[in-house]
């Protein structure tokens, strides 16, 4: 049984919709349908009854939906142990970075670490924060540099490497664009561009809490996987709450204004599994600490 096909099936079975499942998996529907067809072919049984309007589980599909998560969990645990053993055999360190992580000083210092031959090499990968955190917890990554909330990483070591105040990106023609700074209550009735909750849960929840606390009415537009939040703002689809580093390359027909009330903070942290830190990862962390900018934002616990 192909684990990729099993993961795809479990998402389709949970959603009972190929469209919603494809969105969650960040893929189009045709390849998703091929994964399900491949699984059914391997198992020689139909798992889903499909029509133009609905998707339902067959008896065999219901059994796999019930038992499949345990199979997948055991397989992923085995994969984690194998990867851990492989790292001990001299494989490069794998560091995951979100878009915000790439905007910090960390990638440059990692490149310097490699250039000086201080370790066995580093492989960088990029993804959304929630997926990076999951891969870290499964042992597929040695460390992650991404925006994270304190409650999101139980059992992980955390070092805040960048901290910035969140502001508002808005079209240059917006009624508030000439202001020097904004308050959330100034944004009554506005539309906000947001990342999908399933790929950026911390950012989504923290922004929703702040907007609700401000007591304003608002609407949201969720970006699709092939879209960019700053570009949606430039197209007049809504406003964006973000850190300055995230909109550093913003379009010329947009403005970025500080948010004065309430003051919202954007933190980017380096996270790793302390009890499994290899000597090579420890060496990299020591090198990063030596090269960290002295701005009072880097702290570890």
From TrEMBL:
GO terms for cellular component: protein-DNA complex. Gene3D superfamilies: Periplasmic binding protein-like II, Winged helix-like DNA-binding domain superfamily/Winged helix DNA-binding domain. Residues 1-58 form the HTH lysR-type domain. It holds the Pfam family HTH_1. Keywords: DNA-binding, Transcription, Transcription regulation. The keyword Endoplasmic reticulum does not apply. It comes from the Bacteria. One of its GO terms (molecular function) is DNA-binding transcription factor activity. InterPro entries: LysR_HTH_N, LysR_subst-bd, WH-like_DNA-bd_sf, WH_DNA-bd_sf. Belongs to the LysR transcriptional regulatory family. This is Transcriptional regulator, LysR family. It comes from Anaeromyxobacter dehalogenans (strain ATCC BAA-258 / DSM 21875 / 2CP-1).
